[in-house]
Amino acid sequence: MTDKLVFKPWGGTMTARERFNAQMNFKPFDRCFNMEFGYWDENFHQWKMFVDNNIHNNWEADRFFAFDPYAGIGGTVWMHPGFPTDKWVENGHTYMHNGDGVMCEVLASGDSTIPHYIKSSVTTPDDWKRVKEERFRRDDPVRKIDIEALKKRHPVGPARTYPLGVSVGSMIGKIRDMLTMEGLAYATFDYPEMVEDMVETCCVLVEDFLDQVLPHFDFDYASSWEDICFKNGPLITLDFFDEVVVPRYCRINKKLKEHGINLWWCDCDGDVRPLLHGFLKGGINCLFPYEVMGCTHPGKLLDEYHGELHIMGGFDKMQLGAGRKAIKDYMETLVPYVERGGFIPFCDHRCPPNVKEDDYLYYLDLKRQMFGGGF
Known about the structure:
By secondary structure, the chain is α/β, with parallel strands linked by helices. Helices cover 41% and strands 15% of the residues.
């Protein structure tokens, strides 16, 4: 591997925007949309190609690898201001308060890992009432969108050659962040009205944001984040999800549909299969960056929900770290689904540092050979 690598965009006859929309809507496309979801922080220090080429983050990596461009517009649809943050060491353990008001234990080394969440600042309806009044104000000036500034960044109409999305936040995932997983489990039974008011608050803030931006841009997709599943299924009951969360998705989807947005992806890790009926009913029709190990091979769901479900991601990171034969074998299983449309393959979350960088370059080159043209 040379010290200075130069990557060129894949060829093609379509713009990135045309390609994305055609591929994700099961229409003819010139080649696969080329993208990745990013890398662990450790990769930027451990991979020689990143160090030698001064690549420090995912934004720079996307341009380094010459991936197809895409962009998104979002607003402040969660708490503002966040809780004060701090960090301290006690009895040899490192603790912190994060911006969601949760006390947690973290690694002293700073290495990437999920913290051990200990205590939330919101446990009772009185806590929520105070936090809502202080940090979830609809009239907070920060929630006002500068439309003209955004128009200068993102051309409107056919002049834009890349897909542009609108972020619709989170209806329950960020609430789980604020309450902690255990706290949410208790609260949905002890204080169901409180949790529903949290969901309603999230929904209203997203609706306020959408009312500002939807009339001014021709968006190609909507995006959201939940992370309410783990490898054995959802972290909330299906009854609560169906009765409280899904109706809010439906409200948001109504606004999206009125402005021609028919693709809505949701970033939710783990086994999402029990939630799929609710996602689809609410308008979420794309899984991103679909994790294989916590669920199943993407082809199984694409076959089961053919024409109804879209997937982005789905290249098993475990196979990516298992060497070149495993990479090629797995890549071959994705070929018919890429050809069919509605599926864009890439590593099924941030690429971890256990993947050898030469193997990663092999993976990128193999993806170009298999999906870089002829569709």
